[in-house]
Amino acid sequence: MDEEYDVVVLGTGLKECILSGLLSVDGLKVLHMDRNDYYGGESTSLNLIQLWKKFRGSDKPPAHLGSSRDYNVDMIPKFIMANGALVRVLIHTDVTKYLYFKAVDGSFVYNKGKVHKVPATDMEALKSPLMGIFEKRRARKFFIYVQDYNENDPKTHEGMDLTRVTTRELIAKYGLDDNTVDFIGHALALHRDDRYLNEPALETVKKMKLYAESLARFQGGSPYIYPLYGLGELPQAFARLSAVYGGTYMLNKPECKVEFDEEGKVCGVTSEGETAKCKKVVCDPSYLPNKVRKVGKVARAICIMSHPIPNTNDSHSVQVILPQKQLGRRSDMYLFCCSYSHNVAPKGKFIAFVSTEAETDQPEIELKPGLDLLGPVDEIFFDVYDRYEPVNEPSLDNCFISTSYDATTHFESTVIDVLNMYSMITGKVLDLNVDLSAASAAEE
Amino acid sequence: MATIGHNNLNAKLVLLGDMGAGKSSLVLRFVKGQFLEFQESTIGAAFFSQTLAVNDATVKFEIWDTAGQERYHSLAPMYYRGAAAAIIVYDITSADSFTRAKKWVQELQKQGNPNMVMALAGNKADLEEKRKVTAEEARAYAEENGLFFMETSAKTAANVNDVFHEIAKRLPRAQPNQNPAGMVLVDRPAEGGARAASCCS
Ligand SMILES: Cc1cc2nc3c(=O)[nH]c(=O)nc-3n(C[C@H](O)[C@H](O)[C@H](O)COP(=O)(O)OP(=O)(O)OC[C@H]3O[C@@H](n4cnc5c(N)ncnc54)[C@H](O)[C@@H]3O)c2cc1C
Ligand SMILES: Nc1nc2c(ncn2[C@@H]2O[C@H](COP(=O)(O)OP(=O)(O)OP(=O)(O)O)[C@@H](O)[C@H]2O)c(=O)[nH]1
Ligand SMILES: [Mg+2]
């Protein structure tokens, strides 16, 4: 490794692996290292033995849970919007050929103590028990407005400039009640708090359209897809892309100390006494702890179960959003469940996550409203984690640090961070103009 | 996993072996019928597909070459995930490469799919005068470990197609598909259908 590279990438989380792949494809000489002996960093998926080591300090999970290698438990659970930015990146880079996906069965929302299917179209709105009969009619009108809305066609704007009209004003025009607004904002537009109400409505309308278009894509019960064998496959697939284009891979490299010259610019990375010279470093927050600050923390519970989440139509993969207001909280809570149908657990087993931006130091208590929806669990692990963002100036030190994965349930913000980093690193804009309306799926 | 549709099988096949053993050369010989005296260490294309007809079926191999990630012991588990077959390649003129091949066999026995068809290929059989590993030794090892064994030469083409044919014959036919397989995301063909083609059955 005593060689000179254009870029050394540290950490094999999803963001780092996408960047490594893009940079190698661009012809840059990339060395990609990780202190762990596995791919994925924070965004890896663990087998049962790894899970036990991490949370129970033992490598002997109980035999009744089945074979360790049948488990792929995500450490950052998220679903992929079928029409979203990550799918664009996968198609643009042709990394899709290394992966198999399946639609996610269901998307639900918690409202007044009960779990309901998220209605996403005007037709579904009419059927949903979430609303009374008059509210349904109002909601249907609003859904039709959103479906027909086209940024480039003023005729569809009905006289409103959505870059100025706030979401609150737009919704007021349709006379929707707070309950309806709650599921539209949190379960359809996937906002995490209520700030969107006072922001221009365009963003919310676009997010609702993304949801509806993603839902239409694969005729599943949700707008999401998810890879077979878990999210840990994603960083590995992008790492393979990088390797195929000449990137060098070294796992299990202790230390990975970033070296700086007298001007404070990065000049190399040292591990095990050898230094790889480089012009730039790309890494996750854990490799440059002095250049990041804490911006929040996440509380979560990981559960192994032998049944689907109750009241979700027997969905073998599902998301349930519990909007903040329904719980009297400042941030939403999420349930996420996957199972053997996505090859993340042995036959008959389900993996459920309950997570939220932590507001206390007691995850057991804080997560209770979500846990109460799961029914009995075979095993449960509690955990609290910090989130970081970079505070350095990359133009001065040539260090490009990713932000910790945020609290969204899908990958839109992940990809935005990656694309911004790519532009800062290369000075170029990645053209993701794949014809998404034409992207489709072939059944294996 | 080998998946079936009518009489067609799709089978992921992975290559493993020491640097320079001839993995890429074997694939190039099989897929394109070519041999390069100075085959570069593998970067770039590392994914091929080739269809073979055997008595009762056609087998479409999806062939994965390592892309160099194994060099520093950093091969990703997704590489052998779902593989129906593996060819472990060593160079008959290098005892080290044979030792390395045995390590790969162990690794596959630990990580791979238990029904995987495994072949041990002693490559560069044309270099008889420089031989360091005897065929007897390799065959005995293969038999003990449930692999089938052939000596090959990517240079002369000896036994190359035969290895792939033998694998195709040995692939379990009616493997019950416990889980309906997933979908591959593809660009839908623009007019004419040139682009997509990522599938199958
Ligand atoms: C159904 C679903 C629900 C989600 N719910 C939440 C949520 O309620 N609140 C939230 O903040 N994010 C949630 N997420 C998003 C996501 O899991 C994490 O928030 C985010 O990806 C990582 O958070 P982070 O910025 O703390 O990452 P990091 O700073 O990298 O987090 C550090 C560690 O925290 C862990 N972690 C962080 N957040 C979560 C989480 N929510 N669940 C499990 N592990 C986590 C990871 O193991 C990671 O290693 C959810 C995703 C899905 C699919
Ligand atoms: N004489 C002879 N040379 C061969 C044979 N097969 C491969 N070679 C040569 O051996 C060298 C290495 O072959 P590759 O196919 O690149 O080996 P590889 O296993 O793919 O190597 P890496 O990609 O570096 O891991 C090349 O120079 C080939 O020309 C063979 O059957 N006979
Ligand atoms: Mg090669």
UniProtKB/TrEMBL annotation, chain A:
<dbReference type="Pfam" id="PF00996">
    <property type="entry name" value="GDI"/>
</dbReference>
<dbReference type="GO" id="GO:0005737">
    <property type="term" value="C:cytoplasm"/>
</dbReference>
<dbReference type="GO" id="GO:0016192">
    <property type="term" value="P:vesicle-mediated transport"/>
</dbReference>
<dbReference type="GO" id="GO:0007264">
    <property type="term" value="P:small GTPase-mediated signal transduction"/>
</dbReference>
<dbReference type="GO" id="GO:0015031">
    <property type="term" value="P:protein transport"/>
</dbReference>
<protein>
    <recommendedName>
        <fullName>Guanosine nucleotide diphosphate dissociation inhibitor</fullName>
    </recommendedName>
</protein>
<dbReference type="InterPro" id="IPR018203">
    <property type="entry name" value="GDP_dissociation_inhibitor"/>
</dbReference>
<dbReference type="GO" id="GO:0005093">
    <property type="term" value="F:Rab GDP-dissociation inhibitor activity"/>
</dbReference>
<comment type="similarity">
    <text>Belongs to the Rab GDI family.</text>
</comment>
<dbReference type="InterPro" id="IPR000806">
    <property type="entry name" value="RabGDI"/>
</dbReference>
<dbReference type="InterPro" id="IPR036188">
    <property type="entry name" value="FAD/NAD-bd_sf"/>
</dbReference>
Automatic annotation (TrEMBL), chain B:
<keyword id="KW-0342">GTP-binding</keyword>
<keyword id="KW-0449">Lipoprotein</keyword>
<keyword id="KW-0636">Prenylation</keyword>
<dbReference type="GO" id="GO:0005525">
    <property type="term" value="F:GTP binding"/>
</dbReference>
<dbReference type="Pfam" id="PF00071">
    <property type="entry name" value="Ras"/>
</dbReference>
<dbReference type="InterPro" id="IPR027417">
    <property type="entry name" value="P-loop_NTPase"/>
</dbReference>
<dbReference type="InterPro" id="IPR005225">
    <property type="entry name" value="Small_GTP-bd"/>
</dbReference>
<keyword id="KW-0547">Nucleotide-binding</keyword>
<dbReference type="GO" id="GO:0005737">
    <property type="term" value="C:cytoplasm"/>
</dbReference>
<comment type="similarity">
    <text>Belongs to the small GTPase superfamily. Rab family.</text>
</comment>
<dbReference type="GO" id="GO:0012505">
    <property type="term" value="C:endomembrane system"/>
</dbReference>
<comment type="function">
    <text>Protein transport. Probably involved in vesicular traffic.</text>
</comment>
<keyword id="KW-0653">Protein transport</keyword>
<protein>
    <recommendedName>
        <fullName>Ras-related protein RHN1</fullName>
    </recommendedName>
</protein>
<keyword id="KW-0813">Transport</keyword>
<dbReference type="GO" id="GO:0015031">
    <property type="term" value="P:protein transport"/>
</dbReference>
<keyword id="KW-0472">Membrane</keyword>
<dbReference type="InterPro" id="IPR001806">
    <property type="entry name" value="Small_GTPase"/>
</dbReference>
<dbReference type="GO" id="GO:0003924">
    <property type="term" value="F:GTPase activity"/>
</dbReference>
<dbReference type="GO" id="GO:0007034">
    <property type="term" value="P:vacuolar transport"/>
</dbReference>
